[in-house]
What does this fold into?
Amino acid sequence: MFDLALIRKRLEVSFLIFRVWRPLLGSLFEAIEAGDPEEVRELAQRLTVQRAHPSAPTWMRDLMRRAEVEARTSLAALAREPDQLERAVAMGEAALAAPPTSWEAEALDRLSLAETLVGRFEQHAEPRDIDAAIAHFQAADALCERRESADRPRLPFREGLRRWQRQFPPRKLAHDTVQWPPMDEFMRAHLLIRLANAYHTRFHALWAVEDLQRAVNACERAEALSRTWLWAVAPNSSGYGRQRGVLLSQLAAALVSRYELLRDPADIVRADWCLKDADRLMPRRDAESAGLARNRVHALILQAEALSRLQDVDKAAAVLRRRQPRDPGWLPQVQIALVRSEISGSDEGLDAAVRLIEARLADAEPAATPELLRWLGTLLWQWAEVTESRPSRPDAAPDAAPEAGADRVAETTSASTSPSALALWRGSVDAWRRLAALESVPAWYRLHAASIWARLGWCSGAGPAERADAAALAVRLLPTAAWRGLGRFSQEMLLTVGGGGLATTAAAAQLELGRPEQALELLELGRGVLWSQKLDAGTDLRLLSEHSEELADRLTSTRLLLERTRPPAPRPVGAAGTRFRGARAAGPEDDESSGDDAW
It folds into this structure.
């Protein structure tokens, strides 16, 4: 009448789940949040032992394996052990090589492996890692697409809620057919957000505009899922308002990035509405509150910069005080000080912002150094412009009254405590020069820094040799930045960096030093980037065919794939923006056509 063996197995599995395995997983995630490498290492070893427990059902073994992959990925970052990351990648690839127990298990394994590959790309900057990660994200999303219509219950809301909550009762936990966590609407939205982050990572590394558009589309799909009733009744969802607030914040961040690039006002308006809703839905003490504060401050600062409204800057400062009263972070503070100075024309707050960045730069990790140098150069640039725009006080007559003379001395003393405009220009140029010399950053990042270094050389009093070196470096970075794998629109935007004219500026600097050969070389290099790619694609492969016909065929097929005709990418109306502050005319050779805020 009763199967005692089955009842005993269910009780044993329930005991192990609630008293051993679930506390173990909880302790692991707490150790990862605390950043304790030794505890993470110990818990990862315990997970390896528990995965081999004979009573563990298949879904629990898979869950512990994915947790171990995440533990080893975190351990590689905390303890700086690259072999842990390689082991995590190997575990993920081995899981995909085995026959999947269900489509949900395969989707979750692909999601786990893709996140590990993204982590390896951030450490080693190998393009194949981020490409493989995006491919795994897309494959997992395709699995969800194929199963969506078959698995979705066609029931009224209340009945569907009750049935959805009864899907995984404790008596079923011993079965191998159970999958936990289920690939519901919440997990699928999590997958889409991770896909959007991977697209944005590849955009930041390679500057492919198409990836930024794909990131926005993925965030929009995730946000659309949060407006369905299946999201509200998903077993994984805890707190509808909070989770929707996180998705709205992510979507707004993607829209703000697209606005910085294409300057479409609709993007910043929509991002502002999304962030208002997210601010209303997300609790103030939530763990994601810091990310929401950064995104909203960034959107308000861009809006203030576009409309020259100080009230938007005040709103950003109020959001920062309300969301992050104890640890506001250096980036929002710097953004607020910079834009307030640009709108008001004063240097209020710039000194404190510069000191804050210099303190961070003194003990910064290599990955954070490029961003800090960029903001340091931008702040010093703005401070120098404000200092130069101040009207100089004329010297007083020798027979001036003593009281007036005392006032002038006091004013001179107070003014002498602030650095001169020339010192500020030199500090800004030095920051851009250091950023352009970093070989660990993407080529397009160095290209922008080198172009600004070359343009600001006139203001800092740099000699002809330094200006020539800066312009030559920028021109030599053009072929690497506008590489063949980018779309034509992305290539053209990179080649017009600084308003265009990099090659002619570099050639003029070389002629000033009496180097006509170098001037001609740089002029031809800057003018023929796209043309040289076309010529390289038409190289004769007869000699290669004589040695290896198979390799020549593969190269030919790859060439045809790269050079196939593609529809032109949509072009924005108006000037294009960038992540960098606008490179306004900084030298006597610049005219009005190259003095806009593009690049």
